[in-house]
Specification:
Blueprint (H helix, E strand, L loop, with lengths): L4 H15 L36 E2 L13 E3 L3 E4 L12 E5 L4 E3 L3 E4 L4 E8 L7 E8 L6 E9 L7 E2 L3 E2 L2 H8 L4 H6 L7 E11 L3 E9 L4
Antiparallel strand pairs: 1-13, 2-5, 3-4, 4-13, 5-12, 6-12, 7-10, 7-11, 7-13, 8-9, 8-12
This protein binds calcium ion.
């Protein structure tokens, strides 16, 4: 497969626009809204589990206050509960997801320096039929990019536990938005310059779930 020079030029322009945070330029579909990545308070919430990476909290992802920017469906709501694993004071509430409910997070800052996200979750039933689907959504792409990243089974998740490190999918979303550069990106001859306001969506399937403490991992911190 060969890539027309015209397409390459367009991609370079798009990448440059992304790198400078410009918006409105052709191809800059994953540019971040101004301020989204500012004032993040990094911490190591999973250190007790051996994951000493620094994470940034997802807005509202502790479920202790208002869920500004979140969308809840199917009876999803916050409930009084706490994640013992974190052991931090002030953690009293969590997200509850009845069967079929979804919760879609507020926009969060994600760049290619943010490879993973994690949260705590548990299934209220240990039935093998209880599953939590986890998707990431990049609404700024055309069409919207939805990437399924996990299907957690409740049969062994009756107690609170952290998810594995789940991919933010930012590389895949970037490639999807810049298909003309896919060959070079995959070959490693073109650096990935990607970023995007991302949402996480969780869906309870076949069981009731709870979730709390949603964080994204900035690799370079
Ligand atoms: Ca909480």
């Amino acid at each position: 497969m060969t890539i027309p020079r015209r397409a390459l030029t367009a991609t370079v322009v798009a990448a440059a626009a992304l790198a400078t945070g410009a918006s409105g330029a052709s191809g800059a579909v994953l540019a971040l809204p101004a301020g989204l990545c500012d004032r993040q308070a990094f911490s190591t919430p999973f250190a007790a589990l051996g994951d000493t990476a620094a994470y940034a909290p997802v807005p509202g992802g502790d479920f202790e206050g208002k869920l500004t920017g979140w969308t809840l469906t199917g009876g999803a709501a916050t409930v009084t509960d706490r994640v013992d694993n974190l052991g931090k004071g002030g953690d009293t509430r969590a997200l509850s997801l009845p069967v079929g409910a979804t919760a879609t997070s507020a926009l969060m800052c994600v760049t290619t320096d943010y490879p993973y996200f994690r949260f705590f979750t548990r299934s209220k039933s240990t039935s093998i039929l209880s599953n939590l689907r986890v998707d990431v959504i990049y609404e700024a792409t055309t069409p919207v990019t939805v990437i399924p990243v996990a299907l957690l089974n409740g049969s062994k998740m009756g107690a609170w536990q952290a998810t594995p490190q789940l991919t933010t999918g930012v590389v895949l979303a970037t490639i999807a938005a810049n298909l003309s550069a896919a060959q070079q990106i995959l070959a490693g001859t073109k650096p990935i310059v990607g970023a995007g306001p991302m949402r996480v969506r969780v869906t309870a399937i076949g069981g009731v779930w709870e979730a709390d403490s949603l964080y994204v991992d900035p690799r370079m911190r």
